[in-house]
Design brief:
Chain lengths: ~375, ~280
């Protein structure tokens, strides 16, 4: 973390118990508050209104095709890295209605716009990689020509409380993509967890107002040093990496590399990687009719370049082989995105590695494709 | 806020059966204000939806100066186009669009235009041919090269005959498997292109059809001396949204629906014909 970074933060100190103040303030301001909760043996975003609901002393051990929650001795609330989902499903719904149609008495069809009902929502404990992914999804769904009204409505209602990562999972590689482990930008309130409490600072005007209300003591020199040490430790724990963006563009020169077929042999084409990827944005649409045939909703659902329909045109499928689907995913994510959005579509969260049922590791795949060897993991 | 997902009702004014499997619909927005501001370029497309059945991208074939109506020529290839084929005048469809980038009509001003079509993929270029003919003095010679597999695959046969009688229009048709009454060439569209005497300084070529046909035609045109910037083509992929959001139509880093469907050859040269793209 650079000195400039720290100067910009000017954090105040907050004891761990006082964290409840945040929940109370957001309730007063009319927000619903989402926070990390242990559910189904993972960390998931759920509505929480007390600090007690947070995962105390829990760490997430992650590996290729592996996710286990374990106890952590210091009783921290944010020692876990992340669960299967970033912010994506909260803005880009896994399924939603785009419009509603109804047959009228005269036989004509009435078409109605359907927009989501949104409540102001504060999300507690967002990671740097998730914020980087959010910025990318914003670029896609809030494009100047055709901003998505569904995404936009939810996005504008969002208040984000980010937190520095003090630990890295074995699958994390955000240092090599430049997206973590310390918070960069895109949050309203930033936090860093220390042994005895939190350093907190405003990241936006509305975040700053809330921090001012809390009248906190400025952080001491020792606390600032601890804050730096925490993220330095997290960075040092990372041993996976991706090469730079110029190198990643060369994936398009490797379309006939034999390694695609090797991965194609292992890959189940299940689409878990695209479902947990915080930047994947593909979807398909289709009508859902009511049983009486009088009305129909046009639904959009997350799709995946691993699905059969994604590359289908009528009877013809462009990517029948799994190897081609994996190649589509990896080349698009790491090279195609650069032309489309000005940077690679990978933020180094490592979720695609963790949640792959057969443990395919994109950092290894890239290494094998570009250097002709497997990364030493 | 404008919602690019939301369709608007359009009513069918006229329906024409072009051939056993191909029909045209002349449409008009029910909302007259929408019809008044509805503008498009040859090569752009609309998303057509039918209540409870589905939604499909279809190229617009009418002239952009026809402000009262817009036309779609549709081939029955699946469930949605089958259902659309049963509609009659007075029935309604949902319309979103127009979407995409059309043909380089501004670049073509003052130039000879070579139109190459194959199979049944000619609808996106029929709009171009009509556009050129209605503004005849603004363009040079027009070469229309159409290849089909079977003789019966040629729709708009009378139209091709009519075009061939126009001044400065060279119509060449080839069938891979012609019948006895086929008055034109036997063979491939590339053999037709080979007969052209191109003015390399002032020619634009526009291609539409099966990608293997287009690849062969492009190789031929480049051999004859055209540079990549003079070669344009229209592509087709799975399109769910029409405006570069759903991701299904991507070819390498290009969104076919938004960056295309009409591309300059140089933009897609790396991926055209590459397996899996």
């Amino acid at each position: 973390m650079s000195a400039q970074h720290i100067v910009a933060r000017r954090p105040g100190f907050m004891e761990r118990e006082r964290l409840q103040d945040f929940f109370d303030v957001f309730r007063l301001l009319g927000y619903r508050t989402l926070g990390p909760v242990v559910e189904e043996e993972t960390i998931q975003w759920r509505e929480v209104d007390t600090i007690d609901a947070l995962p105390t002393g829990v760490q997430a051990r992650q590996g290729a095709g592996e996710y286990r929650l374990e106890e952590q001795s210091e009783n921290r609330l944010f020692a876990w890295n992340h669960g299967p989902q970033a912010i994506k499903p909260l803005l880009f719904s896994a399924e939603e209605t785009l419009w509603h149609e109804r047959l009228m008495a005269d036989g004509q069809v009435d078409i109605k716009q359907t927009l989501p009902e949104v409540k102001p929502t504060a999300i507690f404990g967002v990671r740097a990689c998730d914020l980087a992914a959010l910025a990318l999804q914003d670029r896609h769904f809030l494009s100047q020509q055709n901003p998505d009204p569904h995404y936009k409505a939810r996005r504008e209602a969002l208040f984000l409380i980010g937190i520095d990562c003090a630990f890295s999972a074995a699958t994390c590689f955000c240092t090599s993509t430049g997206d973590g482990p310390s918070l960069g930008e895109g949050f309203d309130i930033g936090m860093a967890e220390l042994d005895d409490g939190y350093l907190v600072w405003g990241g936006s005007a509305k975040g700053g107002e809330i921090i001012d209300r809390l009248s906190l003591e400025p952080a001491t020199e020792a606390q600032l040093n601890s804050m730096i040490q925490e993220t330095d430790r997290a960075a040092a724990q990372q041993h996976r990496f991706l090469p730079g963006e110029t190198e990643l563009k060369q994936l398009y020169d490797k379309l006939n590399h034999g390694h695609w077929d090797e991965i194609g042999e292992r890959c189940l084409s299940c689409g878990n990687c695209t479902a947990v990827c915080p930047t994947c944005f593909c979807y398909s649409t289709g009508y859902q009719r009511t049983l009486d045939g009088q009305s129909a909703d046009m639904k959009r659902q997350w799709d995946s370049c691993f699905s059969q329909t994604h590359s289908s045109m009528g009877q013809f499928m462009l990517r029948r082989e799994t190897a081609l689907r994996y190649r589509q995913w990896l080349t698009h994510k790491l090279a195609g995105w650069q032309e489309q959005f000005g940077r690679s579509g990978c933020v180094g969260c490592g979720r695609c590695i963790t949640w792959c049922p057969v443990g395919i590791d994109l950092t290894q795949a890239v290494s094998a494709l570009l250097d002709g060897r497997l990364a030493d993991v | 806020m404008f919602d690019p997902h939301l369709p608007h009702s359009a009513v069918i004014d006229r329906r024409v059966q072009e051939s056993p499997g191909i029909f045209s619909l002349r449409l008009q927005h029910v909302d007259t204000k929408l019809q008044d501001i509805f503008e498009f370029q040859p090569g752009q497309f609309n998303m057509l939806s039918l209540f409870g059945v589905g939604e499909v991208p279809i190229s617009i074939v009418s002239d952009p100066d026809d402000s009262h109506f817009f036309d779609h020529t549709i081939r029955v290839v699946g469930r949605v186009t089958e259902a659309l084929s049963r509609l009659q005048p007075g029935d309604r469809v949902g319309i979103r669009g127009p979407f995409g980038r059309g043909w380089p009509m501004a670049q073509a001003e003052g130039q000879d235009v070579v139109v190459v079509t194959g199979g049944l993929g000619c609808a996106p270029l029929v709009s171009v041919i009509r556009y050129l003919l209605r503004r005849r003095d603004r363009f040079g010679d027009i070469h229309i090269m159409q290849g089909v597999k079977h003789e019966d695959d040629l729709i708009w046969r009378r139209q091709y005959e009519a075009w061939s009688r126009e001044h400065g229009v060279n119509v060449q048709l080839a069938a891979d498997m012609p019948g006895k009454a086929w008055p034109w060439q036997q063979g491939l569209v590339t053999e037709l292109i080979n007969t052209l005497d191109l003015n390399l300084e002032k020619t634009v070529s526009m291609l539409c059809g099966p990608e293997l046909m287009m690849l062969a035609a492009i190789a031929q045109l480049r051999d004859m001396g055209l540079v990549d910037q003079q070669i344009w083509l229209s592509m087709e992929r799975n399109m769910q949204c029409g405006f570069g959001q759903c991701g299904c139509c991507q070819v390498g880093p290009k969104f076919v629906c938004k960056d295309g469907p009409v591309f300059c050859y140089s933009e897609v040269a790396d991926f055209l014909g590459a397996k899996g793209f």
